[in-house]
Amino acid sequence: MRPGSLRKRSSFLEFTGLFASRSQSLFRLRFRLREAPFRSKNFCRFTLVALTALAGLSGVLLAQVTTNDVASVTFTLDFPDSDPSHYSIAVDTAGHAKFESAEKTDPKGQDQNYESDFEVSPGNRDRIFEWAKQARYFEGKIDAGNSKLAFTGEKTLSYQDGQRSFTARYNYSNLEPVRELTTLFQNIEGTLDYGRRLAYLHKYQKLALDDELKRMVAQARQNELSEVQGVTPVLQAIVDDPSVMNMARARAKELIQMGSSARPAN
Q1: What is the pTM of this model?
Q2: Would you list the domain boundaries of the chain?
Q3: Residue closest to 143 by CA, chosen among 98, 112, 174, 105
Q4: Residue 54, class by beta-carbon neighbours within 10 Å (0-12 exposed, 13-18 middle, 19+ buried)?
Q5: What is the tens place of the pLDDT at every residue in 210-233?
Q6: How far apart are alpha carbons 6 and 129 in whole angstroms?
């Protein structure tokens, strides 16, 4: 049996034992209530509080066992003077993902924070955690250590679960699973950045939507974007808007169809 399975089994058995112990205490308390020669209001009130506390403790223990089974992988890029200058994408084993970035909406203005939650397709979710496993969950050094390589931003990969927490920084890595993760996360960021710009253009510059969507369709066809379904709400809003050019709406509809083939993880 694998170590992960043993840990899960151990956590479950520990919870079962604690739950059984509290169940026995609850049974003894109920038995004493039946035998007690008195039924004062204060005693009944105390009994109700005790029963509620036992039930609450059991729920907390179950939640802890469940939480410990959830792992996450996070990719972060910090690249000053670029756009975006910072972003991070966190994906957990349930397929839930969170994107955060510092974007420039005005060339002369300060960076604006942008956030988006979405569901990663099952295929990419599985690839992310398999590559993390192959990279030993980023324990130790993953950077190639070649100072002659051009700087393409400080990248960080982090892994965390109930038993482990590792973080490694790099510019470039010779490890194949790390390179695969880097490419995938950068392709996901490309999709989500399109979503941010499209939402802005839809609100303020509708005539510029067609050119932006044309570029997005071209990149999606060349497999340079990932998780297109992550921006479906933005694309659908464009499709449903009769004030947008028909060509732009058709391109948005095509992108929705591309993303629909990758169903979100349950």
Answers
A1: 0.73
A2: 3-68, 72-260
A3: 174
A4: middle
A5: 999 999 999 999 999 999 999 999
A6: 19
